[in-house]
Amino acid sequence: MLRVLGLGDNVVDKYMHTHTMYPGGNALNFAVYAKMFGIEAGYLGVFGDDEAAIHVYNTAHELRLDLSHCRFHTGENGYAEVRLDDGDRVFIGSNKGGVSKKYPLRLTKMDREYLAGFDIVHTSIFSYVEDMLPFVRDAAGFVSMDFSDCVDDAYLRRCLPFIDCASISCGDMSRNEILNQIEQIREYGCRHIVIATRGSKGALVSVDGTLYEQSPCLVAATDTMGAGDSFITCFLINYVDAMKDARDFPVVSGDRGTTTIVDYQKLVVKTSLYRAAVYSACNCQKEGAFGFGKVF
What we know:
Layout: E1 3-8, E2 11-15, E3 20-24, H1 26-36, E4 40-47, H2 51-62, E5 71-72, E6 79-85, E7 88-94, H3 99-102, H4 109-115, E8 120-124, H5 133-139, E9 143-146, H6 153-159, E10 165-169, H7 175-187, E11 193-197, E12 203-207, E13 210-214, H8 227-243, H9 261-283, E14 294-295
Parallel strand pairs: 1-4, 1-8, 2-6, 4-5, 8-9, 9-10, 10-11
Antiparallel strand pairs: 2-3, 3-14, 6-7, 11-12, 12-13
Helix pairs in contact: 1-8, 8-9
């Protein structure tokens, strides 16, 4: 069975208009969404000791994520302040990760063995693990990282050689700008998968140099928090799991049906993108990244 790990950030998203906080954070969201699919999932990150930290930790524990390698420090947990504009979440402030930034993860030999037990390790630009990426690359079979809307050339050059899948949020970028960004990411070292999410415009995805486009499954959104994270999670767990079966048939098998890895991969990518679009749309009809709101 597929096993995945979210490595890095956890926060509470504080909805200022309702005074309700919801667990979230890119790395934690990835682990939670995978767990909701019935996949074995873990989370490795840093927790503070305030009310927000307790709420996030208790929620993750209730969802039965493996939290066995997490770190704990005295201080303020990461949080973001949010408002909703017609269902579209808008970030209006944050504490820049709280204890996660003050006490960034320093992985050990014990963590190396732990990471090696997962099929996908996913992290993000908000996780403060850049210095540990060579370590993660050495330990993990497949490494995914969400770069949000970062276009800093030096940062991308620093991180991308250690990544199998890079995700970027493109917002209102033109198609040509996105294609150029994808090619730049591939040039800097991430040549397997690049996912460019575009909100209500869908997604552009490059897999081994082949470009795919996925329309969004548009719905009346309650809350778009986690839309991109849910899309990325659903795509990756479906893609990585299915590609475990990939093989070229011997020549004597003939050429009827799907008989090559290349043809099979195309089917897998398209199916995985379809499922991701549907799942992301469903997630937009929930409050917060995945629910579990608490008044603050």
